[in-house]
Write a structure and sequence with these properties.
Structural class: mainly alpha
Strand content: under 5%
Helix content: over 70%
Distance between the termini: 35 Å
Number of helices: 4
Length: 130
């Protein structure tokens, strides 16, 4: 079962960024499938760490493109990136604490954030490029 299905609305028209968006969705779906399937804790911890690292690298790419293109909403978009990274760290802490972690909440947060961010922030950025 996939948590997030690729949608053409997620495309920003920059092949490297779109490729990474698809890879991140794939990684999130794999993490969610492992959670739902009762994967060992080390696997979940590894996936969360990999997700954080890949998202950080992806944001660095997007932010470089924004700076290069002198994007007028760079600061707001970057702040949204930082908010997501903080949320992922919180999810990782919750999982480590094992007290307040919920796979349902994790799924809802990731799905909502990615769908909303792709459809709003990234879509606006793409419109700025054309």
């Amino acid at each position: 079962m996939s948590l997030i299905e690729w949608n053409d609305e997620f495309s920003v028209g920059i092949s490297a960024v779109d490729h990474e968006h698809r890879e991140l969705i794939g990684l999130i779906n794999e993490l969610y499938a492992n959670l739902s399937g009762g994967a060992p804790e080390i696997t979940i911890v590894d996936f969360l760490g990999e997700l954080y690292a890949r998202i950080s690298a992806h944001f660095a790419l997007e932010e470089k493109i924004m700076r290069d293109r002198k994007y007028d909403q760079y600061e707001d978009h970057k702040a949204d990136h930082e908010r997501l990274l903080d949320e992922i760290r919180d999810i990782m802490d919750d999982y480590d604490d094992n007290e307040s972690f919920s796979e349902e909440i994790l799924g809802e947060r990731l799905k909502s954030w990615f769908s909303d961010h792709f459809k709003t922030k990234d879509a606006r950025f793409y419109k700025h490029l054309v």
